[in-house]
Every structure is written in C-alpha cells, then in structure tokens.
C-alpha cells in the first residue's frame, strides 16, 4: 500500500462543511418543476377564439389529434399510458420463454443462472 494514501485519511471534524456532503440539493426536484409547468394555464388562439387550458391538457389534445390522424407513435404512447406497457418476455436460444410477471426474485435468479450456464 502506498504510504501517502494514509495522509488523505483524516477523521471527520465536526463543523467541517467541506468534508461532508450537504445531502440532497436544496430547491425543487425536476419532477416537481415539470408537474408545476404542466399545471400552468396557457392561452392560444384556436379558430379565432382564445382558449385557455393547462399545458398538460394542450399536450394531451395534441397527442390525441396526432393519434387519430394516424400517427401510430402517439397511439402507442397513449395506449401504454392508459393500459401500461405489455409484459416483456425473455426468449433465449435455449428455447425458454419466461413470463417475468409470474416469477419470484428467487425463481428469476435461478433461471438466469441456468441460462448463463447453458443448462
């Protein structure tokens, strides 16, 4: 071991702000900021009339319009938001189909071990 490494090992000194992280940064999280922004009312002229909706309502209206007009990406996103994403299956070259939603953690770990060992 390098003897110089021990020079960096110093006991914590109470009140030393540089030695200790201050925890989570002060202020609002990104999630909170986004939620607040989505709740803000926005006004736009639509067909010559001023309409006011929240940002979330405008986004939802736009996504639904795009989906109805045939943009499959928006349809899929709306469907996944409402129904949840479909279960993912793992298919390996060992011809084992696994429904992840039905396995316990222990069963999943054992299955992964079997697959890694090509059993």
Gyration radius over CA:
27 Å
Series of H and E elements: HEEHHEEH
Quick one: biggest sheet? 2 strands, antiparallel
Shape: flat
**Structural class, please?**
alpha+beta
How many structural domains in the coordinates?
2
How much helix is in the residues? 40-55%
- How many strands in all? 4
Count, helices:
4
Low-confidence sequence ranges:
none
Beta-strand percentage range: 15-25%
Strand order within the widest beta sheet? 1-2
Architecture overview:
This protein is of the alpha+beta class and 119 residues long. It has 2 domains: 30-83, no CATH class; 87-119, no CATH class. Helices cover 40% and strands 15% of the residues. The protein contains 4 helices and 4 strands; from the N terminus they run H-E-E-H-H-E-E-H. The chain has helices at 30-39, 55-68, 72-83, 105-116, and strands at 41-46, 49-54, 89-91, 97-99. The strands form 2 sheets. It has a two-stranded antiparallel sheet with strand order 1-2. Strands 3-4 form a two-stranded antiparallel sheet. A hairpin with a 5-residue loop joins strand 3 and strand 4. Helix 2 (55-68) crosses helix 3 (72-83). The protein is flat, with a radius of gyration of 27 Å.
Record the SSE blueprint.
Blueprint: H1 30-39, E1 41-46, E2 49-54, H2 55-68, H3 72-83, E3 89-91, E4 97-99, H4 105-116
Antiparallel strand pairs: 1-2, 3-4
